[in-house]
Amino acid sequence: MVNSSAAQENPPVLDKDAPLKEDIRLLGRLLGDVLRDQEGEAVFDVVETIRQTAVRFRREDDAQAGQDLTALLHKLTREQTISVVRAFSYFSHLANIAEDQHHIRRRRAHLLAGSAPQQGSVSFALSKLKAAGVGSDTVRTFFGDALIAPVLTAHPTEVQRKSILDAEHDIARLLAERDLPLTPRERVANMHLLHARIATLWQTRMLRYSKLTVADEIDNALSYYRITFLRELPGLYDDIEEEIAAHYPDDAHGAALDNDNSYVQMGSWIGGDRDGNPNVNAGTMQHALVRQATTILDFYLDEVHALGAELSISTLMVGASPALQALADASPDQSPHRSDEPYRRALIGIYARLAATARALGATNILRKEVGHAAPYLDATEFCTDLQVLADSLRANHGKLLVRPRLSTVQRAAAIFGFHLASLDMRQTSDVHERVLAELFAGAGVEADYTKLTEEQKVQLLLAELAQPRLLYSPYAELSDETASELAILRAAKDIRQRYGKRAIRNYIISHTETVSDLLEVLLLQKETGLLRARDKQLDAMVIPLFETIPDLQRAAGIMNEWMALPLVKELIAHQGQLQEVMLGYSDSNKDGGFLTSNWELYKAEIHLVKVFADAGVKLRLFHGRGGTVGRGGGPSYEAILAQPPGTVNGQIRLTEQGEIIASKFSNAEIGRRNLELLVAATLEASLMPHAAEGAKAKQLGGFEAIMAGLSERAYKAYRNLVYETPGFTDYFFSATPIAEIAELNLGSRPASRKSTKRIEDLRAIPWGFSWGQCRLLLPGWYGFGSAITQWIEEGERDEKIATLQAMFKEWPFFATLLSNMDMVLAKTDLAIASRYAGLVADVELRERIFKRIAAEHGTTLRCLEMITGAHERLAGNPLLARSIQNRFAYLDPLNHLQVELIHRHRALSGEAGKVDERVHRGIHLSINGVAAGLRNTG
Predict the structure, then answer these.
(1) What is the pLDDT of residues 571-581, one digit of tens each?
(2) How does pLDDT run across 527-556, given as a tens digit for each residue?
(3) Where does the chain cross the membrane (predicted)?
(4) Beta bridge mates, 656
(5) Quick check: 494 and 506 in contact, CB under 8 A?
(6) How many other CB atoms are found less than 10 A from the CB of residue 115?
């Protein structure tokens, strides 16, 4: 018995994670049942034995357990190996579903309890702003001018097939149902369906056996629109409008935001990003827009059809506006049964016009045939006008309540998505532009060898040519395939803008921007294809430099200063609303200079850009090319935006969402809505919260920045010395990680390397980071930090320097976010697992020499992090994430051990006989999928 008084003094602590544990146990049990049924009891027993041995190896650091595990794995037959890898991989996926559901559950509990707004919500941001004295006019101006754009990109770390995503979406829905009050019969039915869906998942092929095409990538991305963006974005707008009204109830201007101010818009690179991807061309761009338009028009058609069923309003009961009546009279629907139902007749007419529009824009499969013929809409604005007629008539005739459920959602969606759905960016590397123009200049007899000119000569020639009314291009000239393709792409962009609207394509990004001529070259190519009318100072696609490497970032402000000083460019920027975008690359700068230096050089580049743009009187919009893993700029978006230097956000921000991070953030509607809200809240707060940068605070920040510069220099040397200067490091990397096996996977349409070499310089940053994640070292997210801190401390008064670092952590958001992200990476890093991958290196001396250096730096980094933060456990400030990561290890560790065993077998066979065992090969690829799913942000 429990002593009642003692129980009152010490009430039981509720385990908030108990429902999560219950869900994971349930899904694990059902997977086990499927495994027994499909593969037999013997395979199930093998899986359980491996899991228990791996847990013992981790928890007890038991050398005997390590030997037992090696023996177990070595004895597995090929068939058993595949089953075991699949079991642990699917358990990773199911655990992710359970975690996502638990996040939703916790957030709902918080909202139902009426607790204070959560950090990261728009309500929380508005509360902070109001407390800081920011008025409603300022807030409304922000939403009137802001552009917040998540940009979906396809990259070769996306390991999910759409079939798997669909099955998992169904499992998530069924799991969520279990939180509802179900009858015993309903609960049994739910359990049967869950069991069946997991069995379906087991019988569904996890991997692609054919190369993923750009068209596949386009369709995969569009699935997230149907799951999340089409409904959640308009809903978020409604929520924000209500929050503003609640926080500023005395606002004389009223609560409603202008429906045309689409401050969150979607962007895409899929089909337009041809940097290093020979599979992207004019055809893929046109295909992308056809598919995008089909997706959004299907949505409009479904919603308008549903509205027609709902708005059964009769003029015998209530009036209608003359404009609404005119819209009804123009409808092809002349049925006498609906003569008194103008809303239905108007919607039948709108549906007919949408169907005609869909056909005109390339859609070929309209499920519901329209009543009669109607002219297509010229543009989305005409569609919006018709919807507004409906809304105005309802509001004027006692129908205000009927606007919100569906009509306002369609209105919001039309303003956000138009007929194009998402703005498609074009991207190409500067070297290609140079080659194309060299060919055009030579063919036109203007300059025999453009590539040999100095930068000054190039700029002079390009400006002179931009002033010429004639073209370099001749339809009678024979062009290389590359030049013909590049010109065709730009012509396709012009056609796309005419067909789908100006927002369909409006940006041209230049990879590896190193000079002003790199920017001018794209202006000239746009002139050649009608996208630039220099005489009218009209530019259709903004020219956006992408600064990627450390030297590029250091040159960024100087290049932009020269660019914005050019008279022609000044006029073009004026026509762009006195705004210019700059893209910053996180991935290549990290591969180039390491984690600490990359972050610091990005921060410095932003500060210098702010000053240059302020001096020029131009508004700066930064486009952050962030990846999934911390080594590529990943980590929580909310904290990342708030950690930006003052003056760099100002209501304008674009950022990439890449690889499996898209699935992690947006494959569940509620989690997707939360992630979209985080972006808005962070941008709002970063833009409008007053910055205390005067006097002592500014002096302190200046001191912190000086220290950071010194730390960066030391970290850069340590990182470069290991990666680029250590003899044999490249051989070590290609042996001790599954980079070669990753390159063979059908993960994306883009090759893993820019050139067919084994030079790290030529390797794309994405597979570089992905490989380190697979072997659980995650080296790009921490290496060099420990050396830098240790050297800096040893050069002065130790206690004083430690105190300064601790102050930087507490008082400087940039440094705090840096350390928080590194803390997360280190929580996922495991040297014991990594040592097994090191065993793949045949050269014992090389293996021991390099792994010893990495292990030493890891230990130093951990000690330095703990010294600065005061936390001796990883993720002490985020216990939920810490528990999540710890809970994953039991099924993630076996996948890593299996992967090492399979790579051993694969390389031994291919090395000795030049053969490939397809089952072993498949097992490696399955394990890559499972590890990526378990770590979640490794791409």
Answers:
(1) 999 999 999 99
(2) 999 999 988 889 999 999 999 999 999 999
(3) none
(4) 151
(5) no
(6) 9
Q: Checking DSSP bridges between strand 423-424 and strand 426-429, what pairing results, if any?
A: unpaired
Q: Which residues are catalytic, by number?
A: 155, 591
Please state, in angstroms and rounded to a whole number, the distance separating the CA atoms of residues 561 and 615. 9
- Helical packing angle, 595-616 and 550-565, nearest 10°: 10
Under a CB-based contact definition with an 8 Å cutoff, are residues 194 and 30 in contact?
Answer: yes
Q: Report which of 656, 753, 737, 732 is spatially closest to residue 156, judged by C-alpha positions.
A: 753
Residue listed under structure tokens 């801190």:
789
Which of 238, 107, 136 lies closest to 880, judged by CA?
Answer: 107
- Provide the 8-state DSSP code for 229: I
Bridge partners (DSSP) of residue 427 are 273, 509
Hey, is 625 helix, strand or coil?
A: strand
Q: How far is CA 25 from the centre of its chain?
A: 30
State pLDDT tens for residues 309-344.
Answer: 999 999 999 999 999 999 999 999 888 888 899 999
Residues with Cβ within 8 Å of residue 899, at least 6 apart in sequence: 738, 774, 924, 927, 928, 931
Amino acid occupying residue 18: A
What's residue 538's pLDDT? 92
Category of 91 on φ-ψ map: left (φ > 0), alpha (ψ -120 to 50) or beta: alpha
**Cα–Cα distance for residue pair 461/89, rounded to 1 Å:** 57
Query: What residue type is assigned to position 921 of the chain?
Result: H
Q: Where are the beta strands (DSSP E) in 812-912?
A: none
Three-state DSSP class for 344? helix
Quote the radius of gyration of the chain (alpha carbons, Å). 29
Residues near 531 by beta carbon (within 8 Å), at least 6 away in sequence: 490, 493, 494, 539, 540, 541
Tell me the C-alpha distance between 821 and 638, whole Å: 12
The whole-angstrom separation of Cα 782 and Cα 473 is 50
Q: Would you give the distance in Å from CA 233 to the centre of its chain?
A: 16
> Could you give the dihedral angle defined by the CA atoms of residues 830, 831, 836 and 837, in that order, rounded to the nearest 10 degrees?
80
Q: What is the C-alpha separation between 807 and 820, in angstroms, rounded?
A: 15
The answer for 421, left when phi > 0, alpha when psi is -120 to 50, beta otherwise, is left
Interatomic CA distance for residues 803 and 868, integer angstroms: 8
- A 10 A CB-CB count for 110 gives 14
Helix (H), strand (E) at residue 510: strand 507-511
687 phi and psi angles, rounded to 5 deg: -80, -40
Structure-token pair, residue 48: 């359980």
Q: What residue has token string 């002033």? A: 467
Q: Is 444 helix (H, G, I), strand (E, B) or coil?
A: coil
How do beta strands 532-533 and 538-539 pair?
antiparallel
Query: Which of 814, 828, 809 minimizes the C-alpha distance to 881?
Result: 828
Residue with tokens 């027993």: 45
For the chain, which ranges sit under pLDDT 50? 1-13, 156-157, 254-257, 630-634, 939
Mean pLDDT of the chain: 89
Residue 471 CB neighbours (<10 A): 15
What is the distance between the alpha carbons of residues 715 and 596, in angstroms, rounded to a whole number?
6
Between CA 783 and CA 855 the distance in angstroms is: 10
CA distance linking residue 5 with residue 8, whole number of Å: 5
The first and second tokens of residue 195, run together, are 């069991």
Residue partners of 887: CB distance under 8 A and separation at least 6:
24, 95
- Contact (CB, 8 A) for 528 and 440: yes
CB 653 within 8 A of CB 145: no
Size of the chain, expressed as the number of residues it contains: 939
DSSP secondary structure letter of residue 753: B
The pLDDT of residue 256 is 45
Element (H, E) at 149: strand 147-153
- Do the beta carbons of residue 362 and residue 294 sit within 8 Å? yes
